[in-house]
Amino acid sequence: MVGAILHINGFSTVHFSPISNHSRTNLAPPKPPMLVRTTQPHPYWASLNSDIEAYLKKAIPMKEPLIVFEPMHHLTFAAPRTTIPALCLMACELVGGDRHQAMAAASALLLLNAATYTHEHLPLIDNRGLKPKLKPMIHHAYDPNIELLTGDGIIPFAFELLARSQDPAHNSSSHILRAIIEISRVMGSKGVIDGQYKKKLASQTIGGELCHVERIKRVVEKNEAALHACGAACGAILGGGSEEEIERLRKYGFHVGMIQGLVQNGLREETKWISNLALKELEIFLGRSRNVDAISAFIHA
Amino acid sequence: MVGAILHINGFSTVHFSPISNHSRTNLAPPKPPMLVRTTQPHPYWASLNSDIEAYLKKAIPMKEPLIVFEPMHHLTFAAPRTTIPALCLMACELVGGDRHQAMAAASALLLLNAATYTHEHLPLIDNRGLKPKLKPMIHHAYDPNIELLTGDGIIPFAFELLARSQDPAHNSSSHILRAIIEISRVMGSKGVIDGQYKKKLASQTIGGELCHVERIKRVVEKNEAALHACGAACGAILGGGSEEEIERLRKYGFHVGMIQGLVQNGLREETKWISNLALKELEIFLGRSRNVDAISAFIHA
């Protein structure tokens, strides 16, 4: 039953719907599902995150020079977690791959998220010599110069991990290059950086309500949505998915990211129709994997 | 005649030595060469730099969103130039490759140098809320937040360029992955970032003269030397060089970078013996390429 388990902040929320999601997308309005909320994180989701963390702890050991690796280790695990790395592994398994084929990509996505978060909170002086006012206050464990440098070290390290994950037995070098292109594009001028500019502009201008909502949507499209789309597409690419599977999962990831970003910005009302669009992208996987329910759980209710 | 043309700040300096460099490395001290200084940049070096610039201008067009691409374009070309990208192309041609096989790697190295330079000069507030004092003053064309973001966009873009340069006709994906590993390592925790930490520490401590020289050497090893070694090795890898050729050119690049870094730090006296070590690495290429003289020109007199 697609869409049976929805996901709220990492905890599973079981919905018993009287109709299957497949047919639900053709009917409007759907009957409201019965909701039973549990307090346990989804076990599949928890197992993926635990594997990613173990992989990264091995990849960033606490070794010499400690002045480099200690902040790298700390800042990687101190950044707020996202569902992007786990979505990447899920997509890989959904197309029939083994999660280890996408482990480096999932870890790279976690690292890049940590670098972005670290740099986003650096206290910079503006061109008029004024201290920053708009940035949210967070605890800085290190001198900002160290945090800037560490972020700069984490970004290439993410690409190194990915490039090193080539497995001659699977002849996956072209898959890895494709994943590098996907990730570098979404982190660069066409994705997160453009989104950050838009976020900065949005925070500096005041407009009407509709205009405000549209502006938030543009920011979310370039940030959370683009990153989730990239994560899901990379997982599908590295798992050996077909072009159709890759594009379906990319769209699924995009919708999941849109929902998350809009909810975080207080626009839950805008997300209702997106859940159905997202679940529709998973229909081709129905009956082909026991994980369809789990991956559909990424949608925030 | 290896070592016939030496290179000072991009301009050729022709040395007429009474002995070939090959035999000179076995004799000490060498007779001082006669020196005729010209005012023209070395034509081979100039042609490589011109090709890299043309490639990058095409890769970073002035297109929408201009708020992203305009600073990216400006900061890429505003950073002080290094000889690393041209050395990369030279190494590629020296092992028998075509310069276009290494063009993306050379451009990636230029981009990463620009990102490092941009971030190195950001005005950050330290943990005590104090404005920076030690950083050299440079003109900031943009708000520091924009410069931070642009640097963060340039780094993944460098890897994107490289990953996209796969040419199925040459089946070069494994070469490209190897170059990505080389570049990401040297830019990350084991290279430039470690070097930047060491530079920061060196600028904050005061010691004896010998200690000071040794400290500068450690910094140069991780910065200029490691980057030139990486550039030369990547060129050789992408040009299809043998393992011996790759390692010889890596060592040559390392020595070239050491010389440049030490000269920039006022330690020209420390570089004399390094030139001979560098030229020795080029001996296996003698008679195999008309460019041996040109590549030996990278050594600063």
TrEMBL record, chains A, B:
Pfam family, one: polyprenyl_synt
Xref: InterPro entries: Isoprenoid_synthase_dom_sf (IPR008949), Polyprenyl_synt (IPR000092)
Gene Ontology terms describing biological process: isoprenoid biosynthetic process
Cofactor(s) recorded in Swiss-Prot or TrEMBL: Mg(2+)
GO terms of molecular function: metal ion binding; prenyltransferase activity
Coiled coil: none
Transmembrane regions: none
Keyword terms of this UniProt record: Magnesium, Metal-binding, Transferase
Protein family (similarity comment): Belongs to the FPP/GGPP synthase family.
PANTHER family in the cross-refs: FARNESYL DIPHOSPHATE SYNTHASE, HETERODIMERIC GERANYLGERANYL PYROPHOSPHATE SYNTHASE SMALL SUBUNIT, CHLOROPLASTIC-LIKE
Protein name (database record): Uncharacterized protein
UniProt source species: Crotalaria pallida (Smooth rattlebox)
